[in-house]
Amino acid sequence: MCSPLALLHLQAQGKGETFRSCQAGRLPAAGWERAAGRATQGDARLVFQLPLSSPVTESASRRAREQQLFQRPPRGRLRVRGTVRPASPPARRWQEGRAPWLPAMSLASGPGPGWLLFSLGMGLVSGSKCPSKCQCLVQEVTCTGMQLTEYPPDIPLNTRRLYLDDNDITFLPAMDLGLLSDLVYLDCRSNLIGEVMDYTFVGVFKLIYLDLSSNNLTSISPYGFSMLGHLVHLNISNNPRLSSLNRYTFANTSSLRYLDLRNTGLRTLDHAAFQGLLTLHTLYLSGNPWRCNCSFLDFTIYLIVAHLNHPDALNATCVAPVELAGWPIAQVGNPLRYMCITHLDRQDYLFLLLIGFCIFSAGTVAAWLTGMCAVIYQNSRRKSSETEDEDENGQPVGVSRQIFKSRADSVHDGFPQLI
After folding, report:
1. Where along the chain do its domains lie?
2. Taking a C-beta distance cutoff of 8 angstroms, is the pair 1, 29 a contact?
3. In this structure, which of 162, 190, 199, 219 has its CB flanked by the most CB atoms within 10 Å?
4. Does residue 107 carry a pLDDT above 70?
């Protein structure tokens, strides 16, 4: 039976008859080795003909075959399975180390290069497998309705369209998903995925279509879609446990044209989350318990000025407050602006009355305190002035002056005045 690498090599060389014979099992191991040797006689690409699956002594002779195969032949000759053949010009260039596609190797380097090529070959083979329970076409893998509980392994690395819908997958591994660098279409609807983390889609930067509808999403990381700069279609509808979206959720999805947010638990949206979506054309918002309060005003104004296509505009209605219940959110901008900016309700008047009463009470108390302070100050000043007017004997200065004046008058009466 032929090894996978031998089949790939024979197919690449265009040896259709030999390839079909080897694939059907009509050639033994030595037979396909000789056929491969004849097909690539004098060609340096013989190094990729490592027989990986010998029927009898595979594990015992693998190292010996590798050392024999990767040993550099003498200059001017090429060793093929123990026979020495004249080397072709490409082989001579390979011997001289001038081939740009293969580094020079020698026995002094040990089995390292051999194992490197072996690992490379195994990686290429494993990347071309098809997961069990899935159907694989050219660059397309379909795993729809296979009751998968986890992300399927062994998905071909060149896959561009991946269908994982109608399963029970709870988590998208970033490491496995990031290997699909050419992926442009990912359908994960009707699963049990609970969250989108920062690094979930870090490797699939070419993704154009992403469907996460009908899952159990409870949160989407602020930077969960930050690497999806080419994303055009995003569907996260029918996730009733998703109650909020961060303002940076769509920060880097500048190519987004279709966004479906129907039937989620969203109650409000920050208009800043949509500022970078300059190419957004279609937006679905129905089936959500929108609370059209003053914090929702900026988003309603955005809906008015952005001129987006709302196919479900009449079904996207407010549930609160009572005055706006049943109003389409695309038409609630002006009434909400009147309520939040120019209109004063009963609570506002009560608040103003309370503020006026507080100001009046504060002014009255301040005036009373000022009067009391003035009276106390006057009394203290009068007492201090009376204390300063007392003489040394403790009598008031006014009484002493009267006694001195009466004595002076009596003296003037007893003696004549001299002219």
Report:
1. 4-126, 350-381
2. yes
3. 162
4. no
